[in-house]
Design brief:
It is a single chain. The chain has 183 residues and is mainly beta. It has one helix spanning 2-23, and strands at 30-40, 43-52, 58-65, 75-80, 83-89, 92-93, 99-104, 109-112, 115-118, 125-127, 143-152, 155-157, 167-172. Strands 1, 2, 3, 6, 7 and 10 form a 6-stranded mixed β-sheet that branches. The longest helix is centred in the N-terminal third of the chain and has 22 residues, at 2-23. The protein is elongated. It starts with a helix and ends in an 11-residue tail after the last strand.
């Protein structure tokens, strides 16, 4: 009988530690990251995609270093697998005048005094869950296609290597696991 009670207490303690550790898991931990750059006559555009620890969630960092940076924070058009935003604005200017924005697919939480609360996001980070609605988290669901074009004061900057059309980036997820329940 004592062995059974000891076993139950040990199992309960193990379960408590596991649940507590799971609650502390940082959803923003990066499982894998890939970066693509396009350099043309007007500058460089870089897109970095991070597949995050939280299943189904992603982050995208866009860095723009083109001729429009001299006129202030640039606006841009973005399309991610058919979901588009016609007007977003860069959020951060770097020392070399390049501009950066980070878009994440969910608003992360953190535990404060045993209560889950929304994290305060850095100034250059925004949340747009609908932009990533068709973005494949797992490899078997296809490619992640991103199209960008920058504009400010009636001037546009597209890919001059490709007839000044949208900058186009393609990513393939490295995750081949079976899809997991997201919550």
């Amino acid at each position: 009988m004592k062995k059974a009670i000891t076993f139950i207490l040990l199992l309960t303690a193990l379960l408590f530690v596991t649940v507590k550790a799971g609650a502390q898991m940082n959803d923003l931990d990066i499982i894998n990251s890939e970066t693509r750059d396009i350099t043309d006559a007007d500058g460089t555009v870089s897109v970095r995609v991070d597949w995050l620890q939280r299943p189904g969630e992603m982050a995208m960092t866009i860095t723009y270093n083109g001729f429009l940076t001299q006129e202030g924070l640039a606006n841009f058009y973005i399309e991610v697998n058919g979901e588009q935003r016609e007007f977003m604005t860069m959020k951060q200017e770097l020392k070399n005048r390049a501009q950066r924005i980070k878009i994440i697919s969910f608003h992360p939480t953190q535990r404060v005094e045993n209560i889950n609360r929304l994290m305060e996001l850095p100034e250059n980070t925004i949340v747009d869950r609908l932009l990533f609605r068709n973005a494949p988290y797992y490899k078997q669901f296809g490619e992640l296609n991103v199209a960008l074009k920058f504009f400010i004061h009636g001037r546009w900057d597209g890919d001059s290597n490709n007839n000044n059309e949208n900058f186009r980036f393609t990513f393939v997820s490295p995750l081949t696991d079976m899809p997991k329940f997201h919550f």
